[in-house]
Amino acid sequence: MDKVLGRLSTMSGALAAGAITINTCLYNVDGGERAVMFDTLRGGILPDVIGEGTHFQIPVIQRPVIMDVRTRPREIPSITGTKDLQMVNIKLRVLWRPVVEELPKLYKELGIDFDERVLPSIGNEVLKSVVAQYNAEELLSKRAEVSERIKKELLKRAAQFHLTLDDVAITHLTFGREFMKAIEAKQVASQEAERQQWVVKKAEQERQAVVIRAEGEAEAASIITKAMELTGNAIIEVRRIDAAKEIAGKLANSRNIVYLPTSSGGGNSGSPGMLLSIDK
C-alpha cells in the first residue's frame, strides 16, 4: 500500500511539474492584440510580429510583450494664438492605432506607453502651427478646412512614430470674452443693416405702387375727358343712371327701407319721395 501511495505521489508531482513547465512555455494573444518577443540570446526584440492565438516560448530566455492594436480615442486640448493674435481654446479628438507591421520598432523606440509620449506633443505642435495660419473668423467659417489640414499634418507626424490616424475632428473651439462680445456686436449690426435695407425696399415698393395708381387714375380721367369732348354730358348721365340702378338694387334687397311718396292722390307733383329706415 505504501508503494502504491508513493507511486501516486511521484506521478502527481511529475504531472504538476509538467503542467507548470507547459504553462511557462505557452502564452496567449487575445483578439485585437499583437505580441513582440524579447529574446535575451538573440539581442533583444525580434523583428517578427506575433498574431492572435496560443504560441510557444522558451522560459527564462524569451518574454512576450502583448500590445493592443485596436483603434482608440484620444482628446488633445491646446490653447494657442491665431493669425490676428486672438487666443483660442481648441480640443481635438483623434482616433488612432499603432501600425502592426512596425510594432517591434515602436516598442524599441518608445516602450509600451508610446501613446502618452507621442500624441500630446505632436498634437499640440500641429494645432499651434495650423491655427496660426488663420484669423479668428476663418476658424469659424472654415472649420472643415482647418480640421482637414490638421488631419493631414498629424498623419505625417504620426507616421514618423509608427502610428496611424483613422479620424481627426475639432470638438471644441472657443475664443476670449472680448472677442466673443465683438462678434455679437458685429452680428447685431449686420442684422440691423439688413432690416434697414428691407425697410428701404418696402418704402420703394410703396412709392412705386402710389405712382402706378396715380398714373392709372390720370389715364382714366383723360379717357373720360376725351369721351365728354366727343359725346358731351351723355357719359355723365350714363354714369349717374348706372349709379342709381346700383343704389336701387341695394335698397330693394333691404327689408328695413320703405319708400313713401310725398304726392297725394297719386298725382305727379314732382316732389321726391321719402326713404324710411324701419328697425326690426
Give a topology summary.
Elements: H1 2-25, E1 26-29, E2 33-39, E3 44-50, E4 53-56, E5 62-68, E6 72-81, E7 87-98, H2 103-110, H3 114-131, H4 136-141, H5 143-159, E8 163-175, H6 177-231, H7 234-252, E9 257-260, E10 274-277
Antiparallel strand pairs: 1-4, 2-3, 2-5, 6-7, 7-8, 9-10
Helix pairs in contact: 3-5
What does this structure look like?
By secondary structure, this protein is α+β, with helices and mostly antiparallel strands. It contains 7 helices and 10 strands. It has a 3-stranded antiparallel beta sheet, with helices on one face. A 3-stranded antiparallel beta sheet has the order 6-7-8. A two-stranded antiparallel sheet has the order 1-4. The longest helix is centred in the C-terminal third of the chain and has 55 residues, at 177-231. The protein is elongated and about 150 Å long. The termini are far apart. The model is unreliable at 264-270 (pLDDT under 50).
Low-confidence stretches: 264-270
Helix share, percent = 40-55%
Spatial gap, N to C terminus: 134 Å
Main pleated-sheet profile: 3 strands, antiparallel
DSSP summary, beta strand count: 10
Structural class of the helices, strands and pairings?
A: alpha+beta
Side by side, the strands of the main sheet go 3-2-5
Supply Rg. Answer: 49 Å
Q: Shape from CA axes? A: elongated
Mean pLDDT: 81
What fraction of the residues are assigned to beta strands by DSSP?
Answer: 25-35%
| SSE order, one letter for each helix or strand | HEEEEEEEHHHHEHHEE
- The DSSP helix count reads 7
